[in-house]
Amino acid sequence: MAVCTIYTTQSLKSTCSISTPTKTHLGFHQKQVVFYSTGKRTSKRGSSSSCGPCVITCSAGDSQTVVIGLAADSGCGKSTFMRRLTSVFGGAAEPPKGGNPDSNTLISDMTTVICLDDYHSLDRTGRKEKGVTALDPKANNFDLMYEQVKALKSGVAVDKPIYNHVTGLLDPPELIKPPKILVIEGLHPMFDERVRDLLDFSIYLDISNEVKFAWKIQRDMAERGHSLESIKASIEARKPDFDAFIDPQKQYADAVIEVLPTQLIPGDNEGRVLRVRLIMKEGVKHFSPVYLFDEGSTISWIPCGRKLTCSYPGIKFHYGPDTYFGNEVSILEMDGQFDRLDELIYVESHLSNISAKFYGEVTQQMLKHADFPGSNNGTGLFQTIVGLKIRDLYEQITASKTAAPLEATKA
Amino acid sequence: MATLRFHSLIGNLGSIPALSSCSNPRMSASFHCNSKGEKRVSRMTVKAMGAAKYKGTQMREKQLAEMIEKKVTEAKEVCEGDETSDECKVAWDEVEEISQAKADLRLRLEIEKKDPLEFFCQENPETEECRVYED
């Protein structure tokens, strides 16, 4: 049996697969390329082969999918954070074409975003019967979540269930092929320890109660049936489960984006101006925290002054080391709003370790999505920066696998 | 459903500032502005401004709007007895789920300008749900 071994460097731009059927005649969900060669052939990269049909398998076990976990309470796959993240890698993320129109999945060239609600073990009726909310772990199948994330991580496609948020039912599964970057987004990405161990990087979006209320007002106020009272009641009723099951995950996150009301306007609790804190764990592999001016020191910075004029209420930054749930962290904080482009570029030019590929990349990304919520404050800024850090992490992980042997076996 | 835009920045998050909606005739139609300039949501139906292209999606929007109303009423009833009961929190969780689903649909239509049925309707233009919605 002839064995063809080809060495390749995986980089951001190259693809491991060349042309790949998802399911081969062998019935495996694996990336396979079939070469038909006549007689001896010497490839400049490898050894010669005298095989007839040569099946070269992009070996699943060697080229790992990078898995990112995002804990958020604001729906799945359609959130602004996801859009910014997929945009950093290029290409728009779209629902799978030709599939269930109610699919929660988003797919772009590099990334696939899976909504963890798809792993509900109880549909809406089931949850009502048992008296559990979607926040409760009892409503979720963590075994299946673990198995499928593990499979995708090792390069094997899976048939993932679909939870239909409109009907409240579990729809027939959809095929998910292993992407370069898999993002699992939802309420419980870090709840189960086994799933946690599969994550290369994890983020928790921590919205304070006041801001959550303000955002939900904006979301729901125009809906018939809703009022300030109903919006408030809904948040209050979900709070106990949220505090018990969702909130504790933030201690495991590599990065927490905390969104609070501003401190710049005394007495302001309308949530218009935001104070956003990027809490970054120290010592995470392939992740170097963003800093201001002098890493490890404590800095208070107001960029507005002689060189930069800002409108009210201005912008205030803070950076410094701290501890968070017993972990060493660095915290970068922005309070206020950007009103003009030059404020944004000015701030960007003073931040370090943002993993941008060129000067002004963060600003460019923010401008690209100026219509997204948070584009004028720390939420957009930090989400974009985290996106760049994830790209950096991905490149580091894949570069460390410079020799990814592809084994060819006779078909 | 009125499109909400704050100040000069589109998509600026936050609650509705007291003055702008009450002085804006387009928005004040959906909000009762009392003498203090505070807002209350009117029960009046506001015309959908989403870019629903296909009938199926337009029906879906309507269905979700009705569900929200229904579920909020249900939740209020269920919670009357005991606000801390399991039934009460499940009822409000359902309200949250449907509200989010409606918001997601609206986001897709207004900001991404893509009808979720787009691909399906390209393949099946003759189906009932793929009739193009005429205003």
Automatic annotation (TrEMBL), chain A:
<dbReference type="GO" id="GO:0009507">
    <property type="term" value="C:chloroplast"/>
</dbReference>
<dbReference type="GO" id="GO:0019253">
    <property type="term" value="P:reductive pentose-phosphate cycle"/>
</dbReference>
<dbReference type="InterPro" id="IPR006082">
    <property type="entry name" value="PRK"/>
</dbReference>
<dbReference type="InterPro" id="IPR006083">
    <property type="entry name" value="PRK/URK"/>
</dbReference>
<keyword id="KW-0934">Plastid</keyword>
<keyword id="KW-0808">Transferase</keyword>
<keyword id="KW-0602">Photosynthesis</keyword>
<keyword id="KW-1015">Disulfide bond</keyword>
<dbReference type="GO" id="GO:0005524">
    <property type="term" value="F:ATP binding"/>
</dbReference>
<feature type="domain" description="Phosphoribulokinase/uridine kinase">
    <location>
        <begin position="67"/>
        <end position="265"/>
    </location>
</feature>
<dbReference type="GO" id="GO:0042803">
    <property type="term" value="F:protein homodimerization activity"/>
</dbReference>
<dbReference type="Pfam" id="PF00485">
    <property type="entry name" value="PRK"/>
</dbReference>
<dbReference type="GO" id="GO:0008974">
    <property type="term" value="F:phosphoribulokinase activity"/>
</dbReference>
<keyword id="KW-0809">Transit peptide</keyword>
<keyword id="KW-0113">Calvin cycle</keyword>
<comment type="pathway">
    <text>Carbohydrate biosynthesis; Calvin cycle.</text>
</comment>
<protein>
    <recommendedName>
        <fullName>Phosphoribulokinase</fullName>
        <ecNumber>2.7.1.19</ecNumber>
    </recommendedName>
</protein>
<keyword id="KW-0150">Chloroplast</keyword>
<keyword id="KW-0547">Nucleotide-binding</keyword>
<dbReference type="InterPro" id="IPR027417">
    <property type="entry name" value="P-loop_NTPase"/>
</dbReference>
<keyword id="KW-0067">ATP-binding</keyword>
<comment type="similarity">
    <text>Belongs to the phosphoribulokinase family.</text>
</comment>
UniProtKB/TrEMBL annotation, chain B:
<feature type="disulfide bond">
    <location>
        <begin position="79"/>
        <end position="88"/>
    </location>
</feature>
<feature type="disulfide bond">
    <location>
        <begin position="121"/>
        <end position="130"/>
    </location>
</feature>
<dbReference type="GO" id="GO:0009507">
    <property type="term" value="C:chloroplast"/>
</dbReference>
<dbReference type="Pfam" id="PF02672">
    <property type="entry name" value="CP12"/>
</dbReference>
<dbReference type="InterPro" id="IPR039314">
    <property type="entry name" value="CP12-like"/>
</dbReference>
<feature type="domain" description="CP12">
    <location>
        <begin position="64"/>
        <end position="135"/>
    </location>
</feature>
<dbReference type="GO" id="GO:0080153">
    <property type="term" value="P:negative regulation of reductive pentose-phosphate cycle"/>
</dbReference>
<keyword id="KW-1015">Disulfide bond</keyword>
<dbReference type="InterPro" id="IPR003823">
    <property type="entry name" value="CP12_dom"/>
</dbReference>
<protein>
    <submittedName>
        <fullName>Calvin cycle protein CP12-3, chloroplastic</fullName>
    </submittedName>
</protein>
